[in-house]
Amino acid sequence: MLICGDRRRVDRREAILEAAEALFLEHGYDRVSLGAIVKRSGGSLATLYELFENKQGLLRAVVGSAVEERDDAIEAMIADGHRPSEVLRAIARNLTASLSAPRMIGLMRIVMIEGLRDPEFARRFYSEYSHVWTLHLAALLQQWNDAGLAVIDDSEGAADLYFSLLLHDVQMRGLFRTSDDEPSDGRDPSWRIEPFITHYRVQ
Amino acid sequence: MLICGDRRRVDRREAILEAAEALFLEHGYDRVSLGAIVKRSGGSLATLYELFENKQGLLRAVVGSAVEERDDAIEAMIADGHRPSEVLRAIARNLTASLSAPRMIGLMRIVMIEGLRDPEFARRFYSEYSHVWTLHLAALLQQWNDAGLAVIDDSEGAADLYFSLLLHDVQMRGLFRTSDDEPSDGRDPSWRIEPFITHYRVQ
DNA sequence: CGGGTAATGTAACATACATTACAAGTCAAC
DNA sequence: GTTGACTTGTAATGTATGTTACATTACCCG
After folding, report:
1. Which of A165, B28, B133, B167 minimizes the number of CB atoms within 10 Å of its CB?
2. CA dist., res. A49 & res. B141, Å (int)
3. Which nucleotide is closest to the Cα of A42 by its C1'?
4. B125 to chain A: which residues are within 8 Å by CB?
């Protein structure tokens, strides 16, 4: 027994996670009832409780499964042998979309609110989802500095400034605008990091 | 009659607003009951409804009264005859505290959530509270450019980058960390805008 | 002091919701 | 096909909460 019995279980789990994520992102955690989630996912309330313990557990699972899918696009780009300034522009182009996508923005919203109840939860999310990029980039900047390809004393501070330039506007606008009118001018977002390249003399 | 009768009314109104703001900032809008607000403010549920119509009206009033108190520190600093780069550093020092204070961060949180229900509300808040700074600074940058004190073609874009550098880290950290441990290193935040000064050749 | 307006306390009301219980149904494996 | 674990549908439970109603009290003004 139960050779393929996991199958149903996994399907139910994914269906519920998908429905819960969609509704949480659209209306916020507190304004979505478990009944509404089950109505959307199919299945029954009982299985939801079987799989996720309670509503808070479901939220954790939703956020956790989204974090897992974090793509490591930055790794790939580092390998390229391009000039550092071009690498920075490429990272800008590749990361802006995913870090300002409605899914990311919506996750941020619900995590921030849940953080009022459980600070550690929000802190971990921020660390895993955002600060991790800073650390990756800081390492890269340090290499460039040591190789004479840039002049950067505080590499972590510099990486922070890079992401500030890149993401502040797009993320704040996303957080305060739920719907998707005003389609964020199609300009290449890499113009935003030019002050960074100039100041740190990135070759 | 009612010459000084407004007095009680105004007192009640302010007491309720104060209690509601404190509780909303601490726990979030959805997780605070009107009963809890009244218990804290003193008074009665009936007066709350008399003054604010309903819970949503109370939220609007809380946010509205906070926005009114926006200080115009930036105006004062422009008058000074200092070098532009010093003016930028002074603005950085003066605005960082107020735009990253717990009150501001908490307001942002509740407005962002309410924005899921009423997008126009969130949009207006963002525009009045944040975008207005960008426009003010853009005008200043334009003047400097015209006077040969800086090289800035897109003054609004530049102003946006300035505030991105200055606020992204401190606001994001605030949004994801409800309590106030890790007291935000006492460093002068003006170091964050040095790339701006370098890139735009601000004198 | 007396009169009326407004504030208070309390309770009622309807609803929504998280959570649990359980009987009936479904599916996979032998 | 039959078994048995898992899933489903539905209802029950208890509680919290937005909102309204109302009788009572406190306050301000003439």
Report:
1. B133
2. 57
3. D8
4. 176
Select the CATH number that applies to the domain covering B72-199 from these four: 2.60.40.1510, 1.10.357.10, 3.40.50.10540, 1.10.8.60: 1.10.357.10
A93: its two tokens: 């182009």
Contact B123 A177 (CB under 8 A): yes
Q: For residue A162, what is the nearest residue in chain B, using CA coordinates?
A: B165
Q: Which residues of B touch A115 (CB under 8 A)?
A: 175-178
Domain residue spans in chain B? Answer: 5-66, 72-199
Which CATH fold would you assign to the domain A71-199?
Tetracycline Repressor; domain 2 (1.10.357)
Q: Is the CB of A47 under 7 A from strand D?
A: yes
CA B57 distance to own-chain centroid:
20
Q: Is the CB of A42 under 7 A from strand D?
A: yes
Task: Label residues A164-199 b or e (16+ Cβ within 10 Å = b).
Answer: bbbbbbbbbbbbbbbeeeeeeeeeebbebbbbbbbb
